[in-house]
User: Which sequence fits this backbone?
C-alpha cells in the first residue's frame, strides 16, 4: 500500500511538472506580463512556488542546503511579512531578470534537493505538512497562472491564441430552465477538524468543525448560463440601480461595465475571449468572469439569492468531485448535462460559484504558527467565499470544504453564479 | 393610557426640537462645513430629515399639501435612487443656498403640516409606520450631525469649542483590569420579528428572528480604555504587521495612523479633541474613534478577539438600556464603574462596539417595499456591525437588536472596542 | 496739488470699501464656499488682504501695534514660505471660524491702525511702497473674489443670482467680422524700469525694460465672439485633434469639454451662467471662460495664432485705458463697438486675452527682497501671460505692461481670445 | 563625390544597425519592460522606428509594397492622430506579442524594401526628406532606448549590469571652479532657414531663422559637477523653499526628492546607477539626471541662472561638435578637461543642458504638412528646451540649433546644468 509519504513524493513530481506544462504555448516575453497589481507574471508564479519550498522546507529541514540564489528570497516572497522585505507587488512585471531560463534552473535545483530530501527516512511530521501545503499552494498558483495570463493577453488588441482548440465545440441554445433542488437544513456541522493527517489536506481556514443552523433551502440544479445573462442585459440589468448593492452600483458606473469581463460585441454578435482565442458566445455555457456585485444583482433580478457557503458545502458533500477541471485543457465553462432534475450539476469544476458569505474565521479558528499563519488569516476582511472550483482548477485542489475568496469587484477569475432560495 | 399614536405625536415634537437643540453653539457658517464625502453639513442634516417627512409622509398622505419648495427634493434627497435625481453627495458643503434661515422655515412649514396631519383621525397604518421610521431616521442623523461637525471642526488648527464644559472631569488612572463575563451560547434566536407594531420600532435589517448557534463565550466586563490603548501603542502596535489584517496594514501605512483619530501629542503629553475642545487624555476612559482595523489589531495583540454581533446581542438583552447618551451633553466616553465583576458595563451608550460580524441580511430578510427598501439593504457589503450606541446616540435609538454599520477604515464615529473570547 | 502719499491714503479708503461692496448680495454662508483648490472663499479674501497690511505694514512700521489676533497669521497667509506655517490651501473652505463678523472686525481694526499710521509724517519710502503693493494686491483679490464666488455658485443646480440686472441687455447677432490692424514691429523696448516712484506702481515681474525684436504683425480689431465660437463648435472643433496641442487634447478628453465653462444647452438653446444668473448666450459678446488650450486650438482652426505678450503690449500702449471693468457692475463681456477698422477695440477690460507667451522673468529681472520676492517670481513656470483685463478687473489695476498669468487648463477667470497673425 | 542620396543610403544602413547594436547585453525579456508611461520598451522602439519607414516611406513611394503585418500599424504608431487608432501608450509593456524575433523580422523586411527602393533612380525629393527625417527619428529613439531601459532596470533591486566596463574610471576630486566665458549678445539671428537641402537636416521646430536680442552674458566654462551638487545638498538645498519655483517645491515634496535620480547612499557613501551597474559617485563628473526644477533651484542657490536657448545656441555655434556621445560606449558623464579658461567645454555630448526657454514655436514657424506636422508642433506647451546632447546621444544628432525638450519634472534623460549670468 502506498503511504501518505509516498503519495506526496509522487504528487510533488506531478504538480511540479504540471506547472511547467501550463506554460506550453507561452514565450518568455508572455510570461513576464503583469496586467494589474492583482495579477502576477507566469514567470513569477514559477519562481514564487519554488521559493516556497526553498524557504519553508529546504532551509529548515535539509542540513547544509545551498540556496540557488539568496536574492531570489527578496524577489519571490509574496506577502510574508515575517519572511523579510520583498519586491513590491505592483512591479513584479519589471523582473526581466532573473530570466525565464534562470528561473527554470532554480526549479531544477530545488526539485533535485527536494527529491533527495524526501527520500530520507526520518523527516519530522511538520516537514511533510509543509510539503503538502507547498503542493496545494502551487496548485492554487496553477490556477492563478492561467487567469493572470489570460488577463494579460486581453490587453493585446488582436486576441492571441495561447492554446489551439482542435475541435471547437458547437454553439447551442437548448438549455432547459434549472430546477430547484431542496435541502433539509437544520443544525449541521460544517468545516473540518483542525487535526489533519498527512494526505488529508485542508487549509487552516477550513477548520475547525463547528455548527451552523440552516433554514430549509433550495439550490438551482445548475449555474446560470450565458443565455440567461443576456436576458438580464436585455432587460437593462446593468442600467437599473434597483438590482444593485450601493457599492456595486458605484462600481458599475465607475468601470462602465455592460457585460461580463472578456465579452465583446461585434456587429451585434457576442464573443468572449478565452485562452483559445476569441470564440462566439455560447448561450448554453455557464456564465463566467462576473463579479460578486454582478452575481448578487443578477440573483436579485431573478427573484432569488446567492447561497451561503454553508448551504453550498452541506449540499455538495454528497456529490463526487468531478467536473471540468484544468487538466482537461478546455479552458472555458461547460453546458448543462442531461439528467435528473433532483440532482445538482457542475458543483465541482466548471465555474467558481460566488456565495453570499464573507470570508471570515470559523468560530475557534487558529491560524498556523509562524509565517504560515499569514497564508489565510490576514485576508479575512472584505472578501467573499467562492465554492466548487472551475475549469481553471487542478482537480486535486477541490473539496466541499475548500474556501476560495476574492473581493466583490474582482472578475478576472473563472467566477460564475448558482442561485439559491428558501423553500 | 397613551396610545402608540399619541406617543408618536409627542415623540415627533421632541425629536424635532432636539435636533435644533444640538446646533446650539453653532453658527450658520459652522453648519455648512463638509469635511469629506462621508460627512454632511449640519444644515444639510436639518434639511434632509425634514425632506424625509415631506417626501414620504406629507406628499403621500396629506391631500392638497403644498411643498415648501420643489427644489429641496433635489437638494435634500440622500441616496434614494427611486426618488429621483439628487445633488451630488461630495458637494453638499457647496449648498450655501438655501440659507440656514430658509432651512429653518422649511422645518417649520413641514412641522406645522405634520402636526396638523397627525391630529386627523383616520390615518392608515403605513402612514404611522413611515412617521415612526422618519423619527428614528432623524435620531440617526442627530448622531451623525454631532460626529460630522466634530470632524469638520478638526480641520481648524485652533480647536474650536462647540459646547463649553462647566466642570471638566478629573483625569484618572485607576481602572482595574476588565474581568471576563461568561455566556452560555447554544442555539439561540436572534433578531426581531418582521411583524412590527407601531410603537415597537425596528429597522427591516433587524428582522426576521432566526437561529444562531453560539459556542460558550466570554465578553470583557467593560470596553478597552485609553490607558490600555497606550500600552498597545508603546508596544509598537501600529508598527508591527503581525497584529493587522492585510487591508488594515495597508490602511495604517497609507494613512500614517499612529494613534486613534483626534489624538494629539504635545510635548509628550496626549490630548484628544472633543466638542468641548482639546482635553487631556484620560487613561481610564473608554478608547474612542478607532477603526475596525485598529479594534481587530488590538484584540489580536491582547490575545482576544472581537465579539460577533450575535454574541453581543444575546448577552446584552438582559441589561437595561442605560448609559452615557447624547442627551447628557457629555460628548466623550465614560469610565469603568465600580461594581460586580460578573456584570457587563457600558453596553449601551458610551462607545459603539465593533463586532467581527459583517453587516449582512439575516436569513429570510425582506427589505421594505419601494423607496424605503433602499434604507438598509443596499449597504449590505463590506461594512461591519457595531452594537450598543455611544455618547453621541439618542437614548431612544438604542436596543439590543440595533445594528449600526460602518466600513472597516472609518473612525469618525464614536467607535470603541469590547473584547471577547471563547470559554 | 495732491501728493502721491495723499493719493495713496485716499486710494486705501476706496479700495478697502470697494472690496466690501463686492459682497453685496452674498451671505456669510456664500462667502465660505471653496469650490476647488485654485479658488478661495470670499471671506478668506477679506481676511487675507487685511492680513497683508498687518503682516507687512503694521507689524513693521507701527511701533506698539497690537495685532487683532495672532492666529489670523496662520489662517490668512497664502503662500509666503518666509512668513511661517499656514492653513492648507485646499481647506480654506473649512474655516467657519473666524466668523464673517470677526473678519469684518479684523478689517476695521486694521483700517483704523492703517489710517492712523498713514497720517504720521515720517514714514520711510518702503512703507509707502508696501502700502501701494498691498492696495494692488487687494485689487487683484477683488477680481478673484468675483470669479471664485461665481465658480462656487456654479455648483448650485438652480443658478443663484448674486447681482440682479435691472435691464437685461438684448441678445444680438450683428457683429461684423473683425479686421486686421497692422503693427510695425522692430526692435522695441518692453516692460518698465525697475526704479518705480510711489504712485507709479508696477509689479516686479513687469521690469526691467528690455528689448524685444518683433516681426511686423497684425492684431484682430476685437476679441472673438460667442457666435464665432459656436461656428468652431459646430465644425467639430472640440472633437478634432488636429487643432489641439497634445496636452490640450488630453485635457479636452479627460474633462469632457464641449463648450466654454458655464455654457449650458437646454432644448437646443445656449445659455451661460453669470453673477446675474443664467442668461441666454449672446452671439455678439466676446467669448469668455475659455482656457489657453481652447484659445490656441481656436486660433489654429481660424488660420491665425495668439499674439505674444510683447506684440500686445506694444500695440496697446497707445490706447487709453478704458473698457468694461468691475466698477460698472455688468459682470459679463461686451460687444463690438461701431467704428474704425483701423483701431483696436476692447483692449482693456472686457475679457483677459490669452497670449502665447509663457510667464517668465524678463532679462535682468530681480525679485523684491524678502517675503515680497515670493509675490511673482516663484510662479514663473508652466503658466501663460494674459493681457488687458476683464469685466471683473478694477480699472486701476490695468496698464499695458500688466502681466496676468494662469495655467493653460484653467478657465474660471474671465479669459477670452484676440487673434494675431504676421503681415 | 558622394551625393546626398548616397550619403543617406549609407546612413540608413549605419543607423539601422547601430540601433540593433545598442541591444547587446539585453534579453527579449529586458526589452519588454516599460517602467512608466513616459518610457517605452526597447522592443517597441525597434518596431516603432521601423513602422515609421513603412508608414511614411514604403506605403507612399514603393508601388506594390507588401506590408509585413497590417496589425503593426496599430501597435507601433506612437502619437500620430492622423495615422489612425493606436495601442495605448501606457500599455506598451503589455506587448509580449509580436515577439522580439518577429520584430527583428519586421526590421529585415523593411530594410530590404528600403534598400531596394533607395537604389531606384527617380525618387521624389519628399521621399528623401522623409527618409532623412526617419533616420533622425531613429537616432532620437536610440537615445530614448538607452534612457528608458536604464529606468526600467532601476526597478530591479540588485542593479543589473547591461554593459560591462573593462576599465572603471578612477574617482577624482580635482575639478577647478568653472570660469565665466563672456559673450557679446546683441541682435542676432537664431534658428535655421526652413528651406532645407537633403543632407542638411533640421527639424521644423528649429526654423525659421529669426532675430533675438540678447544682453551681453556669460556662460560657465563647464557644467556643474557632482561635487558641487553635493554642496548644494549639504547646504539643505532640497529642504529650503527659497530656492525653488512653487511648482518645483510641490514636486520635491510630493516625490520626496533628496538627490538626483539614480543616486543611492549606502553607509554614508554615494553611488549612482548606470548601464554599467552601480558605480561610486565621482565628484568631478558632470551632474546628471536632474530635473529642470532642480537645475533652476541649483542655479538660484549658486547666485546664477540657467541660460536661454538662444544664449546657448549663439555661443555654441563656433565650437566643433565633439564630446562624449553614445558611440563611445561610456554611458555616464565626463569630467572637466584641462585647458583655457576662456573656452566653453562639454557643449556637445556629456549631458543635456537645461535652458530657461520654454519649448515654443519660433516666429513664423510652419509645421510640416500632414502627419509629419504632428512631430514637434503639438508639444509646444509646458516643456523646456535642452541643448547640446549627452553621452546617450548619437553624434550625428547634434548641432547648435537642435532643440530637445522635456517637462520640468522629468529627470530620466541624461540632463545636467550649465550656469549663466549677465555680464
Assistant:
Amino acid at each position: 500500500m502506498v503511504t501518505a509519504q509516498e503519495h506526496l513524493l509522487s504528487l510533488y513530481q506531478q504538480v511540479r511538472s504540471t506547472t511547467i506544462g501550463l506554460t506550453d504555448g507561452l514565450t518568455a516575453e508572455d510570461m513576464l506580463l503583469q496586467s494589474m497589481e492583482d495579477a502576477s507574471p507566469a514567470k513569477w508564479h514559477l519562481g514564487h512556488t519554488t521559493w516556497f519550498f526553498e524557504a519553508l522546507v529546504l532551509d529548515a529541514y535539509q542540513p547544509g542546503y545551498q540556496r540557488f540564489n539568496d536574492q531570489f528570497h527578496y524577489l519571490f516572497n509574496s506577502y510574508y511579512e515575517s519572511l523579510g522585505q520583498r519586491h513590491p507587488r505592483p512591479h513584479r512585471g519589471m523582473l526581466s531578470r532573473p530570466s525565464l531560463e534562470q528561473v527554470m534552473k532554480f526549479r531544477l535545483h530545488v526539485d533535485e534537493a527536494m527529491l533527495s530530501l524526501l527520500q530520507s527516512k526520518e523527516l519530522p511530521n511538520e516537514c511533510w505538512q509543509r510539503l503538502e501545503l507547498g503542493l496545494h499552494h502551487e496548485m492554487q498558483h496553477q490556477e492563478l497562472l492561467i487567469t493572470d495570463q489570460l488577463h494579460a493577453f486581453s490587453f493585446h488588441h488582436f486576441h492571441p491564441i495561447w492554446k489551439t482548440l482542435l475541435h471547437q465545440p458547437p454553439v447551442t441554445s437548448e438549455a432547459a430552465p434549472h430546477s430547484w433542488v431542496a435541502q433539509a437544513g437544520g443544525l449541521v456541522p460544517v468545516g473540518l477538524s483542525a487535526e489533519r493527517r498527512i494526505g488529508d489536506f485542508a487549509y487552516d481556514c477550513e477548520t475547525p468543525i463547528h455548527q451552523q443552523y440552516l433554514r430549509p433551502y433550495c439550490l438551482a440544479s445548475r449555474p446560470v448560463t450565458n443565455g440567461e445573462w443576456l436576458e438580464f442585459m436585455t432587460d437593462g440589468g446593468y442600467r437599473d440601480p434597483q438590482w444593485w448593492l450601493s457599492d456595486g452600483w458605484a462600481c458599475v458606473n465607475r468601470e462602465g461595465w455592460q457585460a461580463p469581463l472578456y465579452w465583446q460585441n461585434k456587429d451585434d454578435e457576442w464573443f468572449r475571449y478565452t485562452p483559445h482565442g476569441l470564440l462566439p458566445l455560447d448561450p448554453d455555457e455557464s456564465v463566467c468572469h462576473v463579479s460578486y456585485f454582478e452575481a448578487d444583482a443578477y440573483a436579485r433580478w431573478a427573484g432569488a439569492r446567492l447561497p451561503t457557503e454553508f448551504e453550498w458545502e452541506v449540499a455538495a458533500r454528497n456529490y463526487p468531485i468531478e467536473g471540468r477541471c484544468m487538466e482537461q485543457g478546455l479552458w472555458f465553462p461547460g453546458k448543462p448535462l442531461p439528467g435528473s432534475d433532483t440532482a445538482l450539476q457542475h458543483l465541482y469544476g466548471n465555474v467558481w460559484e460566488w456565495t453570499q458569505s464573507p470570508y471570515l474565521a470559523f468560530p475557534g479558528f487558529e491560524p498556523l504558527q509562524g509565517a504560515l499563519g499569514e497564508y489565510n488569516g490576514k485576508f479575512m476582511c472584505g472578501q467573499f467565499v467562492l465554492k466548487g472550483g472551475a475549469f481553471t482548477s487542478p482537480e486535486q485542489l477541490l473539496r466541499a470544504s475548500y474556501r476560495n475568496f476574492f473581493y466583490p469587484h474582482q472578475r478576472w477569475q473563472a467566477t460564475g453564479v448558482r442561485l439559491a432560495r428558501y423553500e
User: Anything to note?
Assistant: Chain A has a mean pLDDT of 96. DSSP finds nine helices and twelve strands in chain A. The longest strand of chain A covers residues 352-358. The longest helix of chain A spans residues 125-153.
